[in-house]
Design brief:
mainly beta; Immunoglobulin-like; 12-stranded mixed β-sheet; about 5% helix; about 45% strand; elongated
């Protein structure tokens, strides 16, 4: 397509130099080998999703619920345009595209490149007008990326589940063995007591007869689990994401779709949680444990569309995908050490498979301590070594909840357990966030907690996101308004001296052993 002496070749990055020479020769009416001084060829390389763009307020790659790209555009001219000054711009509105970097001079072959940041639009058909000028020669064309784009950082991929009353351990014994009991709202039906205890942590469980049990803020029911946007989670399809990194769109049952390169599987972003932030994806495994190991992977964004339908991001750059798939991605952290490297902690896989998540800590005397986390804990997140006899272990339960346990190594017993996420230590105080039970369909209503008292609660649809930062006078948090299609982020600073303790109850009680 010719327009103002500029030719657009959207997929020219797959053509050989000889083919380009033939194309230029055909356009110029010649036989190649020198080119036409009145012809510039604009071609688009494969696009990427940068860690952040100038279109996004704060960190992330999503602007008003729509993803932003970086697009490399190049000008292939001829020797007649070699070593000449070139200027670039876009006539598209700044909300659509911005120029971020560009060559100011063509090379010896008359070539130059420019990078633009491009914002997706509601029809998933992003495009912008690129313009280049060399001397008196100016051309412009509409550039539209039409391949899936790759994030330029790897994602840490973990798993979450719905607990299963019939689940068996690796040794064949049943995971839940408690006495039968019932709760108000369950119609008199009985369940194993330790299974119901895990339902309180997970928010949902599948009973031995295949029916469901749900727990939300002191209320029991027999409803099925739901995601943050109200859908039913699908095993190995549903993912929980940070909406600042992977967008979601709920209109007409549309989702942000991604492909995890390392396993070549496609997923839909229909769940979230305050404990999922930045480059992390939580994959819904289904019922019971038995999930694969956590892993790192490159991720492709495939657009927002109806599940299974093709759109402008449906064609894969298979060369790039295959290269990445064969790459050696970094392995998740498996060992934690004290500052002096004289104490160490790691997951005891043998004991974990037989019962529940168990962490082995080796102290300074080389004595091993097997420390068992709560039944709902799935993944080890962190180990803090306080002193010779005290460690704090943080474990992951689901996208909205973590468990933090302080252990006494002289007895291998728990001293105190907190439930929440974003744990921050400030002297003898601990700050963290509690959210309503996962799978309940409630978004927001998060409670900021100091020790065992609520000091702030967010409105409905407002989530406290990520970690808490504490300094001498203030508490710093980030909130995200997830109302509708357009999540908005805002940094909040609270003055410690003006904190008023609330009479609001905790979603999860602090457990102090012996009390």
């Amino acid at each position: 397509m010719k327009n103002n002496n500029v030719y657009v070749t959207p997929n020219i990055d797959f053509w050989s130099a000889q083919e380009l020479d033939k194309i230029e020769a055909k356009m110029s009416g010649g036989s190649g080998g020198g080119g036409n001084p009145n012809i510039l060829i604009i071609n688009r390389s494969n696009t990427i999703i940068p860690n952040s763009t100038d279109m996004v307020t704060g960190s992330g790659v999503v602007s008003d619920g729509l993803i932003t790209f970086e697009v490399l555009v190049s000008i292939t001219g001829s020797v007649f345009n070699a070593n000449k000054s070139i200027t670039w711009r876009t006539t598209s509105p700044s909300i659509v595209a911005t120029l971020v970097r560009a060559d100011t001079t063509t090379n010896a072959y008359g070539m130059a490149t420019a990078s633009f940041h491009l914002r997706n639009n509601a029809t998933c058909n992003p495009s912008f007008i690129a313009e280049a000028t060399i001397g008196s020669l100016t051309g412009r064309n509409t550039i539209q990326p039409n391949v899936p784009t790759l994030y330029d950082s790897l994602f840490y991929c973990t798993w979450y589940i719905t607990c299963d009353e019939n689940e068996k351990n690796a040794n064949g014994t049943y995971r839940y063995t408690g006495a039968q009991t019932t709760k108000p709202g369950l119609g008199g039906k009985t369940y194993k007591a330790d299974f119901l205890a895990d339902v309180v942590m997970n928010g949902s469980g599948r009973a031995s007869d295949g029916s469901f049990v749900k727990y939300v803020v002191d209320t029991w029911s027999t409803q099925a689990p739901t995601t943050a946007i109200g859908t039913t989670p699908e095993p190995n399809k549903t993912i929980a994401v940070d909406y600042n990194m992977i967008p979601r769109n709920t209109t007409y049952a549309r989702y942000g779709h991604i492909r995890i390169v390392s396993n070549s599987k496609d997923y839909k972003a229909e769940d979230s949680g305050g404990a999922i932030n930045a480059f992390r994806i939580d994959i819904y495994h289904g019922y019971g444990h038995g999930f694969p190991d956590n892993f790192y992977s490159a991720v492709q964004y495939k657009g927002i569309n109806t599940w299974g339908a093709k759109n402008h991001f449906a064609e894969n750059d298979m060369n790039m995908v295959n290269i990445l798939k064969e790459s050696e991605f970094p392995k998740p952290k498996v060992e934690w050490y004290s500052n002096d490297d004289l104490m160490c902690g790691y997951i005891n896989k043998q004991l974990t498979l037989q019962q529940r998540l168990t962490i082995t800590v080796i102290d300074r005397k080389h004595i091993c301590h097997d420390l068992e986390m709560g039944s709902a804990a799935l993944h080890l997140e962190d180990i803090s070594f306080y002193d010779d006899d005290t460690v704090a272990i943080e474990a992951y339960i689901n996208p909205s909840l973590r468990e933090r346990v302080i252990f006494d190594l002289t007895s291998n017993k728990k001293k105190i357990t907190h439930y929440g996420y974003g744990f921050a230590i400030d002297g003898d105080d601990i700050y963290y966030v509690q959210a309503p039970q996962h799978f309940c369909g409630i978004v927001g209503s998060n409670r900021l907690v100091k020790n065992d008292e609520v000091i702030m609660e967010t409105p409905k649809n407002v989530v406290i996101y990520g970690n808490i930062v504490i300094d001498t006078k203030t508490i710093n948090i980030t909130i995200r308004n997830e109302n509708g299609e357009l999540p908005k982020r805002q940094d909040i600073t609270l003055d410690k001296s003006k904190i008023i303790k609330s009479t609001t109850n905790l979603y999860y009680k602090v457990v102090i052993e012996g009390e």
